[in-house]
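Quick sanity check, 3-oxoacyl-[acyl-carrier-protein] reductase:
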Amino acid sequence: MVKNLSGKTVIVTGSSRYDEALCITNLPIVTEAIRGIGTGIAIDLAKRGANVVVNYTSPRGAIAGEEVVKEIGDAGSKVALVQANVALLSDLRKLVEAALALSGSGKIDILVHNAAAGDDCYMENMTEEFYESQTDINLKAPIFLTQLTLPHIGRGGRIVLVSSVSARMGMPQRTVYAGTKAALEGIAKVWATELGKKYGITVNCISPGPVATDMWTECEPDPIINAMPAAARVGEVSDIVPVVSFLCSEDSRWVMGSTVSASGGMKFI
């Protein structure tokens, strides 16, 4: 793999998560089958030479995080594993401090806002607590982590926000999740104009469709999946990661304020 991010310092939120529905044993092993998108992004950026800050929140996440650390170390990159709840401003500061400690230049080069909460809820059952639990992670965290990073971001830096096809598909029970993901796409455009020239960075969004888990293989094929233009399957982590890595690289220097669909054609943008 080309080391096109050598010397860069990266924060990837939600980078030690995996789907608990896939944990059919108690073995503390992260494999391709259960690896989350954020974990895949962190490892791929490390293989491209970047030094990466990985965060976790729960004891289960700490176990996964140690496996991520090992893979990044094996790739020859530096890594910091930080316990940080991105919904808390004090914990966001911990991520910035860890990144600056990793950086040889005193700069933070790349932010990937991947952490998300996506529970379902019908409107009739909506509560303020449910609303805040998702907006704190999906919206507040990217806004304030970016604000904390701006004094340290280097020219040529990259910000990537992870949206979802849910932002555009009108799926039932996804009022808050879809709303926050649509907001991220709007924020990418605002930041592109507000921060682009001033800080010499690019800001873009990626919009994944559903990504494969064991739950998908156990279910009957979804008619929507069968009708997808690219192939009759859900996506895999390896379908999403290279798109993010491109948006983090110098090759994407003329891509700005865009939302890139990585959904197999489930939703055209």
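Posting the structure with no commentary besides this: The CA atoms of residues 51 and 77 lie 5 Å apart.
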